[in-house]
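Q: Can someone sanity-check these two? First one:
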Amino acid sequence: MRRKRVVLITAGVVAALGIAAAVAVPAANDWLANRHQQTNSYATGAEAKADRPSVPRWLADDAKSVSYSMKTTGGERLLKATLPGGKPPARCEAVPASQAKAIQLRADWFPKDAQGKASLSCGTYYGYMDGDTFYAWQHKDDLVAGERANAAP
């Protein structure tokens, strides 16, 4: 009887540990993947640029409802803003979606299918307009390449 009790207790502990691991491991992986991502919302482009030097300077000061997410360990960025008049920033040029690099960050406010909709290149960002909403992202390799070009003598 005692042996049966030890076996049942051991089985219960092993089962509890298995369930805990099944819950904890995915949560830990998600935390590790996103621990260096910072996301903020701003009323205007001017407010976003004043708070974050990494927000692109070409974003209109009068842009509204700005959402910005960045990786603190690299050059990955996401940007969403309502633009006055529904026109893209003047610095943007038309490009085919096939030229856009992969989106490396995720945010609940940023479309998962954005890469396939890319139609603009804005400095080191790729983006597109959806009505008066502008979605843009920066790939870390483009930031590094831009910094190297600026540092060259």
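And here is the second, same format, sequence then tokens:
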Amino acid sequence: MRMFPSLKIVALAFAIMLAALPARAATTVTADDTARFLAGMMPSADSPLIPLTRDPAWQQHARFFDQAFAQLEQRQLSKIRAWAETNLAAPRPTMFYMFSGPDFIYADAFYSSATTYVLSALEPAGSVPDLTRLPRGDVAAALYNVERSLSSILSFSFFITKKMKVDLHEGEISGTLPILYVFLARSGKTIRSVTPVALDENGVVGTEGGGKGAVRGARITFAGNDGVERTLYYFSTDLSNSGVKASGFLKFCETLAPGNSLLKSASYLMHAGNFTVVRDFILKNSATIIQDDSGIPLVYFNQRRWRFFPFGRYAGPIAEFPGRYQDAYAELFRRAQPIDFGIGYRWRTHETNLLLAVQLPGDGFGTADAVAQDAPAPKPPPRPRPPRPPETLFGPPPGGFFWFGR
């Protein structure tokens, strides 16, 4: 009987000894730690990536992004969130962002209360490997490539498509995923899972296969400071008429409709006749649309079904997109409210235009009329070309903002 107290003492001593041992480091790299590392933020204390943060290349990268995102937050993101809180009364849980590229950071700023984000563009989702398995020199090169990929959106608020096609195909990490990782981390999100997905022709989402012509992408689940689990879908897909008719992408989107839509720096694609299907989908399935003038031309909105709230100043398209001036837009923006941030191709605050379109309730949501498919865009009457700004699209950034060459 006397043995039992001794055994208890031995067990207690053993437990104390185990508690005193250092915590074992994690053996796998999580997606969240990878995102934080790529974003120049410290991973969790037990992450296998911690030794890589001692590299001067990563430390320089972290300082660089700290400065870049601090300026972006002050100049635009905080002001966009304040604008959205004032002007969006009851946003829907789903937001659609067509022609987005990996631009989650603006989707989150405008629609921070959404629980499902659907982003879509031509760029592939790509992949992010285990960075601990890369040679140190390749890690440094990957970090620099991420910086270079983000240079235009951090400076101008949009990705330059031709440049992005090059940047997102170079190096050990590629595609939109590493950029989405950075934006999620820098937006204060915690990534919980990342899964490759594919859509079949009926819009059914699966984690593999999908057959020939399947739309492929990624599903990321994450949480913000409120702890609410949210889902981000990114799909690499052709949004032209022939592309969306042959895929299940819009059928998938219909399962999440109605939602809210963001259109920014969309290359004026929906001004022409080859993108009428996606244009009509947005008009039919959006409770609100936030766009600059590169989105849906005003002529395609049913004036009886939509209310318009213009902000900023309409200065016409930049010189890289001639022939897209809208007289109706100019007339609408004569009563515009002021705006204190820049967005889109006209990224200077004093030139920027932002339209909030709100669909009025009808006999069941989403019955707004749309122009017949493949109808040509109306030609505006001849008029003098608006004066070109003194600096081109690639001129000095606002407020003396930094360049990415180091």
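A (reply): Looked at the second one. Residues 56-87 form the longest helix (32 residues). The radius of gyration is 24 Å.
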